[in-house]
Structure formats: C-alpha cells, structure tokens
Amino acid sequence: MSSRRLFIALRPPEAVAEALLDTMEGISGARWQDADNLHVTLRFIGEVDRHTAADVETALDSLTFATFPISISGVGHFEGNKRPRAIWARVAPSPQLDELQMRVEMACRRAGLRPETRKFVPHVTLARLNSGSGLIDDWLLRHGTLNLGPWTVDRISLYESDLTPNGAIYSEVEVFP
Question: 20 to 30 Å CA-CA from 7: which of 24, 37, 41, 53?
Fold first, then answer.
C-alpha cells in the first residue's frame, strides 16, 4: 500500500507571500522557499497510508471554527547541532490560532494519529540552512521589525509533501473552509 507524507497548514495571501519573498536575500548558501511553499504549519502528520489519510480528511471535514485575523510580527530561527538550521517569519501571538491548532490536533487524534509532542511555534519558514550557509545575524537585524497583515484565517489546507533532491514540493490536497 502506498503512503503519503502530509501536513495541515494555513497559506498566507498573495500580498503577504510577496512581501515575505522580498526578504529572501542576504544569506549565502540559504535554500530560500518558493512562493508556493510558504505556509503556517498547524500539524505535521508525516508518512501515512491511504486509509489513514482518508480518516484525516474526514476528521478535518467535521472541524469548525470562527474566522479570525493573524499577522506576521518579526523573524527568528531554529537551531540544530548548535547552528542555525532555518530562518522564519513569526506569526504574532493569537489565542484563536492556538485554539484552531488544538482543534486540528484533536481531529488528527480522532483519525488515529499519535499526539504531537513538539510545542506549537507559529511561523512561516523562509529558508533552510546548512553548515555551508552564511551568517544570519545581519539578516535577523534587518528584518527583525517585519510586520505583515493582518489577514483573515477562513480555511485550512491539507498538503502532501513530495521530497526531491532539490527540496520538498508541496501540493494542496484539500481545502477545508
């Protein structure tokens, strides 16, 4: 049985995506994201079989939430092995976003997935870094006051991620308004 690599996310509107793309320069060796890959991950699912994928879709289809605004406020980075591994745009704190993420998590559990153990850090990944990437300090200083939006969250999307030698390619599988 074939498997699918899935995640659930919010896609920023085109104007926000364009503004994020405008920040993507100034770090040598960074693997910058394409516009189609910009998103706020609500839940990474990973590899699942087709039956589990269908169960996730059914669980998400029953999810309800009121629309709410979110915005980008600042930038940051994740570290691994004592070096930066990704830079990102921070999503401003939002109780409604936290509530939506919790509802998505509960839907995933109803579909039979194990609980997510990582803390939810709402962000949009802008670039992946490796040991050959340049320093990020100047970039972080230059974009530290980044403010974009707000935009209205009125849908979530289920994505499939195909890993390629050039990075992941994301395809929207289904939208849940």
Answer: 24
Distance between CA atoms of 161 and 81, rounded to whole angstroms?
A: 25
Give me the DSSP letters along 82-145.
Answer: TEEEEEEEEEPP-HHHHHHHHHHHHHHHHTTPPPP-SPP--EEEEEE--TTS---HHHHHHHTT
| Distance separating alpha carbons of residues 39 and 79, to the nearest angstrom | 20
Alpha-carbon span 33 to 124, nearest angstrom: 10
Structure tokens at 30: 């960074």
Q: Point out which residues pair with 3 in neighbouring strands.
A: 49
48 near 148, Cβ under 8 Å? no
Catalytic residue annotation? 39, 123
- Cα three-residue angle 168-170-174, rounded to 5 degrees: 155
pTM of the model: 0.94
